[in-house]
Description:
Blueprint: E1 2-3, E2 14-21, H1 25-37, E3 43-47, H2 62-65, H3 84-89, E4 92-96, E5 100-104, E6 109-112, E7 117-125, E8 129-131, E9 144-146, H4 150-160, E10 166-170, H5 174-185, E11 189-194, H6 206-217, E12 222-225, E13 227-234, E14 240-247, E15 256-259, E16 262-265, E17 269-271, H7 274-278, E18 283-284, E19 288-290, E20 302-304, E21 309-313, E22 317-319, H8 324-338, E23 350-355, E24 358-364, E25 371-377, E26 382-389, E27 392-399, H9 405-413
Parallel strand pairs: 2-3, 2-7, 3-4, 7-20, 9-16, 10-11, 10-16, 11-12, 19-21
Antiparallel strand pairs: 1-2, 5-6, 6-7, 8-17, 13-14, 14-15, 18-19, 21-22, 23-24, 24-27, 25-26, 26-27
Amino acid sequence: MTTANAGSSGAPQHTVDYLLIGGGLASATAAEEIRTRDANGSILIVCGENQPPYHRPPLSKEYLRGEINAEGTYGHGGVYVQLPQWYSEHHVELMQGTLVTALDTSAKIAHLSDGTTLGYGKALIATGGSPLQPNAPGLDLPGVFKLRTLADATAIREALDGGGKHVLVVGSGFIGLEGAANSMFRGATVTIVDPVPRVWPTMLSPNLSIYLQAQYTRRGASLYYSHTLAELRAGDDGKLASARIAPVGESEQEPFNVPCDIAIIGVGIKLNAEVALASGLAVDGHHGVIVNDHLQASAPDVYAAGDVAGYPDPVMGLFHYEHWDNAIESAKVAAANMTGGDLAYRHVPYFFSDQFDLAINMLGYPSGTAQVIVRGDLPNDKFTALYNEDGILRAALMINDDAQMDLLRELIAKAARIPDDPAKLADPTFDLATLQ
C-alpha cells in the first residue's frame, strides 16, 4: 500500500490499486487472479473476521467431523484459501477485523469502520452474506449455534465432543443437512425441523425428496417437515435443554417438546449489501448488488462477485448464486476485468454436498416441478437425475455418479433438447453426447 497526499483537503490517508471488500473466498480468488495479471499493483483485502480468507464448504463437512483442522489450505488438511504467508509473499495486504462502510465512488475513496479512509483504483464488493435467524425465543441460550464462520464450526465441533448429544437442526438446506449428517457421524441423536413440506422442494421432485429424507430416517434422525421452531428452552443450569415444535398451517396437532442440548440454526442468509447501499449503488432486495455481464456495478471501477452479486443469467434473468463455485468463477472474471480484461460472466450454476456416503453434485437450474428422468440405480445410491423443462435439459443431479459432469455442464450451457420420448434418457446405454 502506498501513502497518498494525506495533507490535501479530503485526501485519503492511503491509496491502493485494488481494494477487495470482504475477507472470503471471492476476495482471495480475486487477489490471486489480479496478481497473475498485474505483478506490481497494490492489493488490499479488508476482512471483517480476524482470520485469513478460508473456504466455507468444509466447515459443515470435514472440519465438523474433525478430519481436518484450520491451519492448512483446503485439500491439504485445513480450510484456508492460501497459507497466511502467501499474502506477504505476493504483496497482498490483509486488513483484518474491520469493515468498509461506504465508497465515495466519485472521489474513489473508501470509508472504513475504524475511521480510516482509503483511495482506490478499482474496488470489488465480495461481502457475502450473514445467517438469518428464525423468530423464536431462546436463540441466545448457550448451546445454540449458527454455522457460517470458522468460529461457529469450531464451537459446534467442541460441543459435539464426547458423543451422545441431542442436536436440533432448524432448516434443511445444505448447511442444515450437512450439519445434521455430520452431527450423527459424531454420535449425536438428530431432530430436523423445517416449515417446508419436504426436503428441497424447489429443487427436487417429490420422489427425490422422499429418497433424500429416507437417508436420514433410516439412520435414526427424526424429521418434522411442515413444522416450525416455536421456542428454545433452558434447563435448570441455564443452558439449552429442549425445543418447542409447532405444526404450520391449519393442523389439529398440538405443539410438542423435543430434548436438545445443541441447536444448529441453518435457515439461509441475508446478503451483505450494506456497503453498496451506503455507496448509492444499484441494489436488488433479493439478489444483492446489481452488476452487468462483466460484473461491473452501477459506478465506474466498482465490481461485485460471489454471493452478493446479482448478475444477468441467460436462463434466470437477474440472478445470484450462494455457492462455492460461483464465488471462485465470478471472482476470476471480475479480477480479469479489473485488470483490463473484457470477459462476460457465463456460468452454469454448480454445488456439491457430502452427506453420509453420498457425494451429491448438482448442475444447472433445478426445479421441483420439472420432469425428472433417473439414469442409474437409485436404490443403491448411484444415479443421475436429468431435469426436463419444456423439452430442454436444464439441470442434473448426480449421486455418487459424476463421470459425465463435464458433458452435462456443456449440455446445460447450450440448452440441449430432450428427445420427444424423454424416457429414452433413462436407458444407461443412451449416449448423452448425441443431445443437441
